Amino acid sequence: MLTDDINVISMTAVNKAEVCSKYPGKFFIRSIMAGFYIAVATILSHVTAAVLYSTYPQFGKVISSLLFSIGMVLIVFIGGELFTGNNLTMAMGYYNSKCTLLDMGKVWLMSYLGNFVGTVFLSFILVESGASKSILTEYYKTFVYGKLEITPAEMVLRGILCNFLVCLAVWVGAKMKSESGKLIIIFCLIMTFVESGFEHSIANMSTYTIGYLLLGGLELKMVFTSMLFVTLGNMLGGAVLLALPLYLMSWEK
Q1: Distances in Å between the alpha carbon of 47 and those of 64, 66, 110, 200?
Q2: Closest CA to 43 of 97, 112, 120, 156
Q3: What's the total number of domains in the chain?
Q4: Helix, strand, or coil here: 237?
Q5: Nearest to 39 by CA among 157, 119, 138
Q6: What is the Cβ-side half-sphere exposure of residue 113, based on CA atoms within 13 angstroms?
Q7: What is the pLDDT of residues 24-42, one digit of tens each?
Q8: Would 38 be classed as within a structural domain?
Q9: For residue range 48-96, what is the model confidence (pLDDT) as tens digits?
Q10: What CATH number should be reported for the domain holding residue 55?
């Protein structure tokens, strides 16, 4: 890892901080759009798994895990502010003394709130449309309660592992020159976290919204607990487990 690479992503962090401060409306819309893309990926993944659940559940899990990658593909190729990706970018800018803690916190908060608005809104539209309602309802009964019942420690650890992989996809995808290369690495790394059962806070916003509306409510205290600890894990995975060692191991060419 060369310091030139660190400087490139640090300048990306500077640009994000500047847009967030000078053009908060545009930044917030970019965050909402990223939430839309993750909601699209969640819907595609879960509908696919629901269709195959009664006949080929194992095959359905593999395919649905692969298809979830479309969310990150849309963000990389169209653009958007994803909270979990920003965990890596802004932390790198801070370690490299290009951004302040305030810059990092503002970008994280704004992207998180925008992602929330985007995922909840699109998930609400899905449920209200009635599309795939019956199969999704039955499928959500098989897993959503289990997501809420894992321990806080497990939530944090699964969140760490998830965003380590997500930010690897962001980092490696940014370094690769060809579009086909970006697609391959994104699909492989995102599929790894979904197939392994790790926890992504932004995807969970969509999942819990759909589950709440389809199943007539979820225990909100459990939902908030899950979101809190998974979000913390995502922050640690991107900003500490990946960004910090990448920064420390860099050297001048």
Answers
A1: 8, 13, 30, 18
A2: 120
A3: 1
A4: helix
A5: 119
A6: 12
A7: 999 999 999 999 999 999 9
A8: yes
A9: 999 999 999 999 999 999 999 999 999 999 999 999 999 999 999 999 9
A10: 1.20.1080.10
Tokens standing for residue 210: 């759909």
| Tokens 């979904």 sit on residue | 194
**Which residues form the domain of 64?**
3-248
Residue 253 lies in a domain: no
Q: What is the pTM of this model?
A: 0.95
User: Where are the alpha helices (H) located in the chain, listed in sequence order?
Assistant: 3-22, 24-53, 57-67, 70-78, 83-95, 101-129, 133-141, 144-149, 152-175, 179-196, 201-214, 220-236, 243-248
Quick one: 183 exposed, middle or buried, by C-beta within 10 A (0-12, 13-18, 19+)? Answer: middle
The full length of the chain comes to: 253
C-alpha to C-alpha distance for 38 and 122, rounded to whole angstroms: 10
Residue pair 206/45 in contact (Cβ under 8 Å)? The answer is no
DSSP category for residue 250: -
Query: 117 near 35, Cβ under 8 Å?
Result: yes
d(C-alpha 238, C-alpha 7), whole Å: 17
